[in-house]
Write a structure and sequence with these properties.
Elements: E1 2-6, H1 13-23, E2 29-33, H2 44-58, E3 62-64, H3 68-79, H4 85-99, H5 104-112, E4 117-119, E5 123-126, E6 159-162, E7 173-175, E8 180-182, E9 193-198, E10 204-210
Length: 226
């Protein structure tokens, strides 16, 4: 099966649904969402529920990876107030979950189960990528790890597909040096939600973008890219 890799959703539920309805073929493609499903947009609860529904319906051909925003949510639930995450977008996310009557402990348990990477012989997909400056990329609190890295990526002799840092062009960007694609196009900032259709050998078959649905944009758009 080919791969359909979706960038940072950030609670833009309607846009995510529209992208999948328009472009994803679940009969022939594995869906991989590379983290930051939650926060910033208008519907974290709906995004979580939709993700679980997809996973239940199409598993094992649906994969949701962990992003730094999922990690920050869990740190808050497991270890007490996360003073970095709360004012950035956490208060709004918690209020949305409370309004939806969702159990935050259940959400945290699901998030904890999410993998950090998906890979095969030719491709490695993660939220922020394998840095050239660390030998411990899978440590979740490592600032150069696959949840947080913003430094240049290593060329690992596989295609890397990442998000995390919004592309300045508003379109997915390829780096020949690291042989990597960044597909975060800042949906929550009303730019676009992007995806790559890939063969299992890492050949890009198509680049697609979905215009952001106005219902997904929170009235107080956060500009901090973390």
């Amino acid at each position: 099966m080919n791969l359909f890799v979706v960038g940072d959703v950030h609670a833009c539920l309607h846009t995510f649904q529209e992208l999948l309805n328009r472009y994803w073929n679940p009969e022939t493609e594995v869906l991989i969402q590379l983290g930051d499903l939650v926060d910033r947009g208008s519907d974290t609860p709906g995004s979580l529920q939709f993700a679980k529904k997809l996973w239940q319906q199409y598993s094992p051909h649906v994969v949701f990876l962990k992003g730094n925003h999922e990690y920050e949510f869990n740190q808050h639930i497991e270890n007490g107030p996360n003073q970095y995450w709360l004012p950035q977008c956490g208060y709004e996310t918690l209020a949305q979950l409370q309004d939806a009557k969702m159990d935050v402990q259940e959400v945290a348990a699901w998030i904890k189960s999410l993998p950090l990477i998906w890979e095969n012989e030719h491709i490695l997909i993660s939220h922020a990528g394998i840095s050239a400056q660390t030998d411990d990329p899978l440590c979740e609190d490592n600032p150069l790890g696959v949840l947080w890295n913003r430094t240049p990526l290593a060329n690992i002799q596989k295609l890397q597909v990442i998000g995390h840092t919004p592309c300045k062009s508003g379109h997915p960007e390829y780096s020949e040096v690291s042989h990597s694609w960044n597909i975060d196009t800042a949906a929550y900032q009303n730019i676009a939600l992007s995806a790559l259709r890939l063969s299992t050998t890492g050949h890009v078959l198509e680049i697609v973008q979905q215009t952001v649905d106005a219902r997904d944009i929170h009235k107080q758009i956060q500009k901090n890219p973390d």
